[in-house]
Design goal:
By secondary structure, this protein is α+β, with helices and mostly antiparallel strands. It is built from 15 helices and 25 strands. The strands form five sheets. Strands 13-18-19-16-15-14-17-20 form an eight-stranded mixed β-sheet, covered by helices on one side. Strands 3, 4, 5, 9 and 12 form a five-stranded antiparallel β-sheet that branches.
């Protein structure tokens, strides 16, 4: 322990702990990535990163919350307890990768600051099903951030142990927020039962462990001590191991009675560091050593050795007929009480683990090997299951255009590129239409405005470069270099009248409003509630909204437009990414369908 701020005072046990932990972390991520890219070749790097780090973070959080009760149930779990804060900081690093990359990917590079986008894109705060789940994850992350940056003993001493401990109990609130984040987010998109089952097992396991450990603690406290005059009978001397303690409840406070070097001493059982159980520790180098983090106190006066200043309350003892008695009134903290001298045969002390000693006791080392093998096997199973059971990984692709394309740019009814093909037998030009998007989360409106300033032609003939994005044999084009992706040519003028034929009037279609850029390849799957906020940002940035629907088992797509394009985004914003029905007129425009919708006829399914 340090009395001033130092990063990490490395010792053998810390090195073993952290090295083993990060080997397991790298192992989990490697297995997840290998399986994901092998089974789902079209999955994007971004989604694998988000999913692998996110699933690992929630697994690690379950372990962190389980360490405490496990250490109370079985002393060998103190191997994980001593450097638990290292585990917590590692968890924070993993969670940070997931959180910041998700924030940047879903909310960055748009027309709104990403932190504003986080809270203002999806504003369905009054609905449970449509609630903006990413906000819950962000709040949980802030708690983990606070805990990580106050994990050092410098902050514990500065904030005071009681306040620091209360602050770090926030991990339970973070856990609840993350459960909500998962249930209201990815579980509304994924259909595999494995995600529900694993989350349920994790929650039930934590609840069971905490109840079990609590029952053990309560059982210790309900040992009734008989009175003899003003003293309380503790029990037989033989019930206390050498250099260790027996814990008893005196006036609703736990007291640790230590037997060492043929003497007895009694002190408060609560460590001044983090409230650890002093009585579960051992006398090491003449001092009581707390099993949680190694804080030490002299047994005769409860004082920590210099330069430390922590003090425990002490108690008076007496010994009669091989029985130990304690006076129930505690002495002020740091009061010297002469150790009670008794005579008993020397008994070998039980094994005791404390993290600042270089060598792990034999039984603890055997236990460490066993749990390491179990954890390794568990990681293989979890990484494999979570990677294999990913759903909605669509056959969508993002790649560079093999060569420049020539054709016309049109802005109405939607921003599109009409590729000029061969003429028909009547001499009329044939066109193939491709919706256009810009780099990042923007449409091509700014490109059209710049071209209009250069050329008054409303449909300029151009040569474009950029990227393909395609899914289900449907293609759109990204002008990835903005205006530099467009080269104006002097050639034919687009015919004045473009063929648009009606397919069905007043038709009602069921499906989902999507942003075509992410859906068709920039992200995968790029749909549903997890993608809702990103889709809102893309469409608000000028990307033409699209409607994905299914007819007779076939996925189809239609570009949305209205008589009033300026109001379209605000009218459809609450429904983007949700299962809905829309009424409108369906048209055919070359190889694309256009859906002229009535924004007052949108209904949630």
């Amino acid at each position: 322990m340090s009395t001033s701020y130092q990063l990490v005072q490395w010792n053998t046990q810390k090195k073993i702990y952290d090295t083993t932990l990060w080997i397991f972390i790298v192992f989990y991520l490697s297995v997840f990535w290998i399986i994901s890219f092998t089974v789902f070749p079209t999955i994007t790097f971004e989604n694998v990163l988000i999913r692998s780090f996110g699933t690992l973070a929630i697994i690690m959080l379950h372990i962190v919350l389980a360490i405490g009760p496990l250490a109370r149930i079985n002393k060998h779990w103190k191997l994980l307890l001593y450097n638990r804060r290292h585990f917590g900081v590692s968890l924070f690093i993993i969670a940070s990768v997931h959180a910041w990359f998700s924030l940047w990917l879903f909310h960055g590079n748009g027309n709104m600051w990403m932190f504003m986008s986080l809270f203002l894109s999806n504003t369905n705060y009054g609905s449970l099903y449509y609630f903006p789940f990413q906000v819950l994850g962000f709040l949980a992350y802030l708690i983990l951030l606070t805990m990580a940056f106050t994990s050092h003993d410098y902050w514990l001493n500065t904030l005071s142990p009681n306040f620091w401990k209360t602050l770090h109990y926030g991990v339970y609130l973070a856990y609840l927020l993350l459960i909500g984040h998962i249930c209201l987010g990815v579980l509304e998109l994924e259909t595999s039962w494995i995600y529900f089952v694993l989350l349920f097992i994790g929650a039930i396991t934590l609840i069971t462990l905490h109840i079990w450990s609590g029952f053990i603690e309560m059982k210790k406290d309900h040992q009734n001590l008989s009175h003899q005059d003003d003293w309380l009978l503790v029990g037989n001397l033989d019930t206390i191991p050498e250099k260790q303690a027996k814990i008893v409840l005196v006036n609703n406070e736990r007291v640790a009675i230590f037997k060492y070097n043929k003497t007895l001493s009694a002190v408060s059982n609560i460590c001044k560091h983090q409230g650890g159980p002093i009585g579960e520790g051992k006398i090491v180098q003449g001092c009581i050593t707390c099993p949680w983090h190694g804080y030490q106190y002299r047994p005769e006066d409860g004082c920590a050795p210099p330069p430390f200043k922590e003090k425990l309350s002490t108690y008076n003892l007496k010994f009669k007929d091989n029985l130990i008695y304690i006076y129930p009134k505690k002495n002020p903290e740091g009061t010297y009480v002469k150790p009670l001298e008794i005579d008993y045969p020397n008994i070998k002390a039980q094994e005791f683990y404390i993290g600042w000693k270089a060598k792990i006791p034999k039984n603890y080392f055997i236990f460490l090997k066993k749990i390491s093998i179990i954890f390794l096997m568990l990681l293989i199973v979890l990484a494999g299951l979570l990677a294999l059971k990913q759903k909605h990984i669509a056959p969508s692709y993002y790649s560079q255009l093999p060569k420049p394309k020539q054709g016309f740019l049109i802005q109405y009814p939607c921003a599109m590129f009409l590729e000029l093909g061969n003429r028909d037998i009547y001499g009329n030009p044939n066109f193939k239409a491709y919706p256009l998007v810009n780099a990042r989360k923007f449409g091509v409106g700014a490109i059209f405005e710049s071209l209009k300033k250069q050329d008054h032609n409303q449909a300029p003939f151009v040569e474009i470069t950029g990227n393909w994005m395609h899914r289900d044999s449907t293609y759109i084009i990204e002008l990835s270099n903005g205006l530099n992706s467009v080269k104006t040519l002097h050639a034919p003028v687009l015919p004045k009248f473009l063929p648009m034929t009606i397919i069905d009037s007043s038709i009602t279609l069921a499906g989902e409003i999507i942003d075509p850029k992410c859906y068709f390849g920039a992200m995968n799957p790029g749909q549903g509630k997890p993608h809702k906020s990103c889709a809102i940002r893309c469409i608000s940035g000028g990307i033409s909204p699209m409607f994905a629907y299914t007819i007779f088992g076939t996925k189809q797509y239609a570009l949305l437009y209205t008589e009033n394009p300026e109001a379209l985004f605000e009218d459809i914003k609450p429904y983007i990414g949700d299962p809905i029905k829309i009424q409108g007129n369906l048209y055919q425009f070359y190889n694309w369908k256009l859906f002229k919708i009535n924004t007052s006829k949108i209904f949630r399914q």
